[in-house]
Write a structure and sequence with these properties.
Layout lengths: L13 H32 L4 H13 L13 E4 L3 H12 L4 H7 E4 L7 H6 L3 H7 L2 H10 L20 H9 L10
Parallel strand pairs: 1-2
Length: about 180
């Protein structure tokens, strides 16, 4: 099997230079947007106690919830006994661009099973904060606003750096936190 490799690339070719400039521009824009996501989401969650966020993400994980907007039809039921989780879910849904739809899509049910602190500890809930501390915690909130196409999963992505510019823009479009002030 013979490989046909045409080298070297003519770096002085105008079309190649324009293509390279476009790649640099997209990467620079993506980096700036990622910084904006970290800044805005960080400001939004900074006043929420870490224990509350830890509890919230444990309850989401128990209910296998990855994003606020899913492709599932009908109501999405999740079980949780914590009033703080409900308040946090309501605040995240209110910031979603499709909040009118999501408001009627989510149903909080009283937990059928005991979700006491001991059950949550068995999930190794301390790892949630260790794993998602700092920018990782912001990443976990960002994944709530991420829309995943059919057949795709967020597990593929570990942080904002793994996303291309279109995914970052989709996160920003689905969350009203990123609307400029005064609009």
């Amino acid at each position: 099997m013979k490989l046909d490799i045409k080298m070297p690339i003519d770096i002085y070719n105008k079309e190649f230079q324009n293509w390279l400039k476009g790649v640099f521009a997209l990467n620079t824009t993506r980096d700036a947007l990622c910084k904006c996501v970290v800044e805005k989401l960080g400001d939004y969650i900074k006043d929420i106690p870490k224990e509350t966020l830890e509890q919230f993400f444990c309850c989401l994980r128990l209910n296998s919830i990855m994003q606020l907007k899913t492709q599932k039809k009908g109501k999405i039921r999740w079980q949780c006994e914590h009033e703080k989780c409900r308040e946090l879910m309501d605040s995240f849904v209110k910031k979603h661009a499709d909040r009118r739809i999501l408001k009627y899509q989510w149903t909080l049910m009283q937990a059928q099973t005991d979700l006491s602190q001991s059950n949550l500890e068995s999930m190794d809930s301390s790892d949630v904060i260790n794993q998602y501390g700092g920018n990782k915690l912001i990443w976990k909130v960002a994944t709530l606003y991420m829309f995943v196409e059919k057949g795709e999963t967020t597990k593929r992505y570990q942080n904002l750096d793994d996303l291309d510019i279109s995914k970052v823009i989709k996160i920003m479009r689905s969350c009203e936190i990123f609307i400029p002030d005064g609009e």
